[in-house]
Design a protein that fits this description.
Elements: E1 14-18, H1 22-28, H2 33-54, E2 58-65, H3 73-86, H4 89-94, E3 98-102, H5 110-123, E4 130-137, H6 139-155, H7 166-171, E5 183-186, E6 205-208, H8 218-229, H9 239-246
Parallel strand pairs: 1-2, 1-5, 2-4, 3-4, 5-6
Length: 248
């Protein structure tokens, strides 16, 4: 069991996941793509509960990208209905988990916006894992929005040109309330970021698996964490420097 191999003192504080492979999972079984999305939504419950049991602070899931609006209208409508169905308050309260969203929420149907805002509000005082859904999200959109905000504040004299730093950009991103992900997992066999957390993943460890998201269970999550814990995170330093600092 991979869970037994995890060093609980070296858990990543933030795990981000690209949940890929729902449609292909369904097509392999002769089902409609929406069946895969429904199964994938159920898998979110399992992974969130396992993250809570482990003590992971933030779990960010790439749920619906800005590019996904270009999918067939029937599939988009089905995805919105599935999302609405699975924004379950009881699940979060039972696990003492919080809920947040990043992305252009204004593009979502009003019923989804209302459900999202309600769930954020009722879970804000919970103490355990914060589940963050990236909805109508893309990094290019997010960074563009940040630049606009910084430019506006600069014109207003709130920020000087010389005062714009990397920290300034970070503070104007959608993710400014949480740390950058130490571990990013992508299911489904593809090995790319797909416009997800580009700024935030500058030094993130990547873990790719061929497993489709509906089959990605708690043991698979633990396996990814064990793999992450076996790596040396150098942040541009040499391995010797890192070892020396760890020994202090």
């Amino acid at each position: 069991m991979y869970r037994e191999q995890i060093d609980m003192n070296r858990l990543p504080h933030h795990v981000a996941i690209i949940m890929d492979g729902n449609g292909r999972w369904a097509q392999l079984r002769g089902e409609k793509r929406t069946v895969g999305h429904q199964e994938g939504a159920m898998r979110v419950h399992n992974i969130m509960e396992e993250a809570t049991r482990l003590g992971i602070d933030y779990l960010t899931l790439y749920t619906f990208s800005t590019e996904n609006w270009n999918r067939p209208e029937e599939e988009v409508s089905a995805l919105m209905a599935i999302l609405l169905q699975h924004l379950e308050q009881d699940l979060f309260m039972k696990n003492d988990a919080r809920f947040r969203v990043i992305g252009d929420v204004s593009r979502l149907p009003q019923t989804v916006q209302d459900a999202v805002n309600h769930l954020i509000d009722v879970t804000k005082d919970n103490k355990k894992t914060c589940l963050v859904l990236a909805l109508s999200y893309s990094s290019k959109w997010e960074i563009t929005q940040a630049i606009r905000k910084i430019a506006s504040e600069t014109l207003q004299g709130k920020i000087s040109l010389d005062g714009i730093t990397e920290q300034t950009v970070t503070e104007h991103l959608e993710t400014n309330f949480m740390p950058e992900p130490e571990l990013l997992i992508r299911t489904g066999g593809e090995q790319r970021l797909s416009n997800y957390l580009l700024w935030q993943c500058a030094y993130t460890e990547f873990y790719f698996t061929d497993t489709y998201w509906p089959d990605f269970d708690e043991e698979q999550l633990c396996k990814a964490i064990v793999d992450y814990q076996g790596r040396q995170r150098r942040f541009g330093k040499t391995g010797e420097q890192v070892k020396s600092e760890e020994g202090k």
